[in-house]
Amino acid sequence: MARMSDQIPPRRAAILASFITLCFAAGCHSTSSARAHQSVSGRDADVSNSHTPTVDRMAPGEILQAAAEATRQDMPIDLATALRLAGANNLQIQFAKQRLAEAFARLDGADVLWLPSLSAGPFYNKHDGRLQETEGNVIEVSRNAAFIGGGPAMSFHLADALFEPLAACQLVRAEQAAVARTTNDTLLAVALAYLDLVQAESQRAISEQDVANAKQLVELTESFAKTGQGLESDAARARNEMATRQRELIEAHENVLTRSVRLANLLRLDPAMTLHTVNTEVTPLVLLTEDTPLAELTERALATRPETEERSALVQAAFERLRQERVRPFIPRVLVDFSAGGYGGGTGSHFTNFSDRTDFNVVAVWELRNLGLGNQALERQREAQQLQAATSEELIRDLIAAEVAEAYHQVHERRRQID
C-alpha cells in the first residue's frame, strides 16, 4: 500500500481506516489465549517505523507525565504512541484483567474444596431442669460440661469437588480470551479514533487553503470592479463564497477538537488538551495483503479471534456444570471431622474428671432433592444454559464472518476510488 503525504486526503484516511478494520476483523492482531493456570502475557507494539523519537520511545508512564505537563496545550502524538498508551492505561483493559484475576481466584477455591477447614475454641454447656434418661425416665438434673480443643472438619459434595475445578478452569480460559478481545477492541478503537483525527486535520488544512484562495478571489474581483474591468456582482459572489469557506473552516476546526477529545478519552488523557498528529508520512499497517481471498480471511478470523475462544470456553464450562448435575444424585455429600482437647464437667457448677477427649466422625449422605424432581429441574436448567452458550458461540461466529466480509469489501471498493 502506497504511502500518504502529510496532507492526507480524507478519502485516503477512510481507506486506511477500512484496512485496519479488516485486519482486526480477520484476527491479524488477536492475541492467542493462554491455557488455564497460565498468566496472560503482553507484547509491546512495534514502533520501528515511527518518525517521532522524542515521543514514541517514551514509556507509558513518561507519556502520561508529559501529558500532564502539557495540560490545556497542544500535545503531539503518533499512532504507535497512542496504541502503546492505550494498552497500558485503558480502563476497559484493566477491568478485563481484574476479571481474569477473579477467575483464577475462583479456580484456586474450586481446587481446594476437598481440603478440611481448621477450627478451635472452647465449648461450655450448663443444664438445669428435667432431662430424659436413656431408659426413658425423666429426672431433675443440674449439670455443666466444658470442652477446650479443636480440629479439622470438612463438608462438601463430591460432585462439586469433581466438576467445579473443571468448570472454573474453562472460565479462566474464557476470561483470558476476554482480555485479548478487550485489548483488540481497544486498540482498534484507538487506531480508528487516531485516523479520524488525521482526517479532521487534513480537512482543516484543505479548508484553510480554500479560505486563502477565496480571499484572493475576493481581492481580485473587488479590484476589477473598482477599475470597471469586472462586475460588482462577481465581487459579491466571491464574498459569499469566502463566507461559506470560512464557515467550513470553523466546522473543520470543531471536528479537530471533538475528535481530539474522543481520542484523549480513550487514552485517559486530559480532554482539555488538543492532540494533533505528528507524522510527516503516515504508513499503513500492512498486517495482510489486500489480495488475500475472503474465504481465507474468514477462516483465519474464526480460528484466531479471541471471541471464538471465549465462547468455546463458556460452552465447555456450561457442559461441565451439566455433567455435575447429572451425576449429583448418585454421588454423596461427605462430612468428616476430627476434634481433640480437654473435656470435663460435673453436677451443679462443679467440674470433675477433666481429661483428654477425641472424636472422629464420617458421614456420607445421598440426596434426592424434592423426591428427585428438584434434581431433574436443575439438570434441565443446566442443559438450557449449555444450549444458550452454544447458540451464542454460533452467533459470534456469524458476526465475525460478517465483519470480515464487510471490511473486505470496504477496502477493495475504497481502493478503487483512489486508483
Briefly characterize the structure.
59% of the residues lie in helices and 17% in strands.
Structural summary, described in words:
The protein has ten helices and six strands, in the order H-H-H-E-H-H-E-E-H-H-E-H-H-E-E-H. A hairpin with a 5-residue loop joins strand 2 (117-132) and strand 3 (138-157). Helix 1 (10-25) runs antiparallel to helix 10 (373-418) and helix 4 (79-89) packs antiparallel against helix 6. It is elongated. Strands 2-3-5-6 form a four-stranded antiparallel β-sheet. A two-stranded parallel sheet has the order 1-4. The model is unreliable at 1-9 and 30-56 (pLDDT under 50). With 419 residues, it is an alpha+beta fold. The chain is 59% helix and 17% strand.
Features:
alpha+beta, 17% strand, 59% helix, 419 residues, 4-stranded antiparallel sheet
Average pLDDT score: 82
Count of β-strands? 6
Judged by helices, strands and strand pairing, the structural class is: alpha+beta
Largest sheet: 4 strands, antiparallel
Distance between termini? 11 Å
Oligomer: single chain
Q: SSE order, as H and E?
A: HHHEHHEEHHEHHEEH
Shape: elongated
Strand order within the widest beta sheet? 2-3-5-6
Strand content: 15-25%
Count of DSSP-assigned helices: 10
Helix content: 55-70%
**Poorly predicted sequence stretches spanning 5 or more consecutive residues:** 1-9, 30-56
In angstroms, what is the radius of gyration?
36 Å
